[in-house]
Design a protein that fits this description.
The complex is a heterodimer of chains A (94) and B (158). Chain A is built from 3 helices and 4 strands; from the N terminus they run βαβββαα. With 94 residues, chain A is an alpha/beta fold. Chain A has one domain: Response regulator (Rossmann fold). The longest helix of chain A has 16 residues. Chain A is globular, with a radius of gyration of 12 Å. In chain B, helix 2 packs antiparallel against helix 3. Chain B has a 5-stranded mixed β-sheet. The chains are: A alpha/beta (94), B alpha/beta (158). The interface between A and B is medium-sized, with 21 and 28 residues.
Chain lengths: 94, 158
């Protein structure tokens, strides 16, 4: 199975994106996906796009990046997590 | 990191009152600095970051905010919490163009996100379930919040 490469974006690329990354690895792992996450600040999205299948962000990110974006707090707060996971899977197209 | 260490580095104020978000963050950051949990530069950096990337989380009746900044401004991981009798306005993390009234502020001092992630994850996921936020908001004493943190973090948190 091919890996899903996820760029996880928050304001500082530290606290929030670390929580979101772990959660994505856990939840997508349960569904049988291989996941690789990379974290960055919202201001550094453009230079971190190489090989990325999807962006999961807790803050606004630039438009027209050529990569699907899911903007959600679900993986931070746990509210609406299942819906958000389905949106990630759907947008990544697997 | 052990739960005990985390509690030792947690500074909690219940039923506090501030005029605005900046005052509240400044007060809490000062407490962290006084305990040598963060550096001099922490406050200015948190305020700057809050302008660019706000941290208000809309949860419903009781909203929270989690101001924080880069690890370089932090000496060791810790947490400063204030519950407010009167909410102050924060901009939303996911929609910065919107302001929301916030009743609990968690200023996060993160020195090593890998080490801290279990605590952070347990804290933030508690925002969305189990009525923990309501219980924190209703606490009269800091020790009541510590009891809630014990439940949230669980003894197994490392």
């Amino acid at each position: 199975m091919k890996k899903i490469k996820i760029l996880v974006v928050c304001g500082t690329g530290i606290a929030t994106s670390t929580v979101v990354s772990r959660k994505l690895e856990e939840k997508l792992g349960e569904k049988g996906f291989l996941v690789e996450t990379r974290q960055c600040k919202a201001s550094e999205v453009e230079r971190n796009l190489e090989g990325v299948d999807i962006i999961v962000a807790t803050t606004p990110v630039p438009e027209n990046l050529g990569v699907p974006v899911v903007r959600t707090l679900a993986f931070l707060t746990g509210v609406g997590e299942d819906e958000a996971i389905n949106e990630v899977i759907e947008k990544v197209g697997r | 990191m052990e739960f005990e260490e985390m509690v030792k580095n947690s500074i909690i104020f219940t039923r506090a009152q501030f005029d605005n978000a900046k005052d509240a963050i400044s007060f809490l950051a000062q407490q962290l600095k006084d305990r040598q949990i963060v550096k001099e530069t922490f406050l200015e950096s948190v305020l700057e970051r809050e302008k660019k990337y706000p941290t208000g989380l809309q949860l419903g009746k009781i909203n929270v905010a989690i101001p924080h900044t880069d690890t370089e401004h932090v000496l060791k991981s810790g947490l400063a919490i204030a519950t407010l009798t009167k909410p102050v306005m924060f901009r939303r993390m996911d929609r910065p163009e919107q302001e929301i009234p916030v009743s609990i502020i968690f200023v996060l001092a993160v020195s090593n996100p890998k080490e801290y992630v279990k605590f952070l994850a347990k804290l933030t996921t508690s925002f969305g379930n189990g009525g923990y936020i309501e219980r924190m908001f209703n606490a009269q004493q800091p020790k009541e919040i510590i009891e809630i943190l014990k439940i949230i973090f669980g003894r197994e948190a490392k």
